[in-house]
Design a protein that fits this description.
The structure is a single chain. This protein is mainly beta and 135 residues long. The strands form two sheets. A five-stranded antiparallel beta sheet has the order 1-2-3-7-5. Strands 6-4-8-9 form a four-stranded antiparallel beta sheet, with no helix packed on it.
């Protein structure tokens, strides 16, 4: 038990804002996880925080696309609803493959409602890796 507490104490909470150029004028996303990510084959817990900055309820689909060959559980697509000026949290787990592809290591998210794109953002996970992967 002491070893488990020591491991979590060694990890640093990382909060990432999306890279510039996304669509975040209605829903603002932030990604939170413990840094560094565990080695390949282990799962890391991630929290995607979505804030509705409008005065209207937002309902639709959240699609999470991990970097190439990374495993995501429980899945890539979730139904969501956010009250006006409200915030929700989507919890998921990612695992790095045994032989990660060369970077960049982008996590992409998209929030849609029928034909309407409500938000789209990209997060760079490179800083959370225990090692650098170069081509």
């Amino acid at each position: 038990m002491a070893n488990r507490r020591r491991q979590s104490a060694d990890k640093e909470k990382q909060v990432l804002a999306p890279l510039e150029g996304g669509i975040v004028h209605r829903i603002q996303p932030v990604l939170q996880y413990a840094k560094p990510l565990p080695p390949p084959g282990s799962f890391a817990e991630f929290f995607l925080i979505l804030k509705n900055i409008t005065d209207h309820r937002m309902e639709g689909w959240l699609t999470i696309t991990p970097p190439d060959d990374w495993v995501i559980v429980p899945g890539r697509r979730l139904m969501i609803a956010i009250r006006p000026q409200g915030t929700i949290l989507a919890e998921f787990y990612l695992s790095i493959p045994a032989l990660p592809a060369p970077g960049p290591h982008f996590l992409r998210i998209k929030v849609t409602a029928e034909e309407d794109l409500l938000a789209e953002a990209v997060f760079d996970l490179r800083d959370g890796l225990l090692f650098l992967v170069d081509g």
